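Dear colleague,

As promised, here are the two records you asked about, laid out in our usual form so they can be pasted straight into your sheet.

NAME FIELD: protein one
SEQUENCE, THEN STRUCTURE:
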Amino acid sequence: MRAKKSPNRSPSLISPTGVIKLMTHAMMGAALGLAFTLALILVNPAVAELLNHGGRAAALVFVGTMVTTFAIGAALTGVVLILNEDKES
C-alpha cells in the first residue's frame, strides 16, 4: 500500500535534488549534441567543407548551436519526466 502524500509537499523539481536531476538531463543532452555533431561532420563531407570555408568562428557557432539545442531539448524532456515521476509516487 502506498503512503499518502501530504498536500503541502513541494514538487521535487524545485528541490535541490530536482535541480541536480534537471542539470544531469541537460548535460546528457549536451554530450549527445557533441557526439551527433562529430558524427555529422565525419559522415557528411559537405558539412565538413562548409566548416572549412567558414573558419574557426563558423565551427564554434555550429557546434555551440547543436550542443545548446540538444541540451535544451533534454532539459525539457527531463522536466516532463521529473514531473511525471512525482505524480506516480
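NAME FIELD: protein two
SEQUENCE, THEN STRUCTURE:
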Amino acid sequence: MHTRPDAPRRPFLAGRHPLVARRLAPFVPHLLALRAHLDRWLFRVGRPEPAPIVLGQRRIFVMPTSAGLAFAGALLIMLIASINYNLSLGYALVFLLGGVAVASIVHAFRNLLHLSITPGRADPAFAGESASFRLVVSNRRRSRRPSLRLKARSTIAPFAIAAEDSADVLLALPTTQRGWMQLGRVHIETTYPLGLIRAWSVLVPDQRCLVYPAPEPMPPPLPESAARTLGQRSSGGGDDDFAGLRPHQAADSPRHVAWKILARGGPMLTKQFSGLDGGEVHLDWDALPATLGTEARLSRLAAWIVIAEQHGLAFSLALPHASVAVGRGSGHCANCLRRLALFGTGYAADA
C-alpha cells in the first residue's frame, strides 16, 4: 500500500534486539516527540526552510572528531609526563600542539560561516532508481572553502568551493516508492584543516522530487488498438522517408526538430516523415486484468507509456476520475507518468 512521502524513513526500533524492542515499544511515541522537540530547539530543524539558507554563527556546531579525541588524550599523557619529569621542552611541545588544535576550531568554524545553500533541480526518477537532488552552495568570501561535505540519509557528497564562486552539488538518494519524495534533513560539515575538529550544520531545504512508478520488467504487448492501424501509410509521424517541414508544436519530439535551420537563425520547424503510421494507443485502467492490484496496474501502465514514447506512438491515458487526451512527445509522456505517480496520494496532478 502506498504511503505518504513524509512518513518516517526508518522505524525507531528497527535493528534492535527483540527484548529491547518490546520494552521500549510503549515509550516510542514519547521518545519521537522528545527527539523532534530537541531537533527544533537545538538544531532548529522543523519544516522546510525558504531559500536561500544562510549559515550564521548560531547555526554552526563544533565537536572534536575521533582523531581529535585521540589527539587530546595524547596531549594529556604528554602533559602528565612533562609534569612528572619536569621537562621544559615537553611543556612547550604540549602547549604548541594544543594551540594548533584550538586554532583549527576557528578555521573549521569559518569554513562553514556565511555559506548560502539554494535548492536546484530535482529531475523525476522511477521508483528503485536514484533521485537526483541538486543543491547550489555559494561562497561570497574572497577565500576558498575546501573539504566540505553534504550528507543526506546514507549519501555523502564531498566538494569544495573557490573564492567568490558556487558549487552545484548532486545528492543521489535511493527511492523505494512512487509519489513526492522530500529531500528532508541535510548535514553540511567539514573537518578542515587538520581533521581534529568537525564543524557542521543541519538544514532542511524546501525541495522535492517526483518518483514515477517502477515500470513492469516484462510487460505484455501494447493494447491492440495500435496494432490495428499498423501498416497504414501516413505522412505524419513515421521515421522512414523525409517528407518536408512544418511549424513546430509543443508536443513534438526534440529529435524531429530541424536544428540546423534553427541554428542559422530560421524558425523552429519539425521534420515530417512518410512511413508506417504507428497508430494510436489507448491505455485504459479499466481494460487491465482484474487480478492486478493498484501498484501492479500503475507499473504496467508506466511500462507501456515508456514503450510508446520510445516508438514515437501517440497514446491516451484513462484513469479512474481522470484522463489524458491523445498526444505524443516527451511533455505528454511526462504528464502521463506524473498522473501515475500521484495516483491515490492526495496530491493533484497539476500541483
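A couple of things worth noting about protein two: The chain has two domains: 43-211, 224-341. The longest strand covers residues 130-138.

Best,
R.
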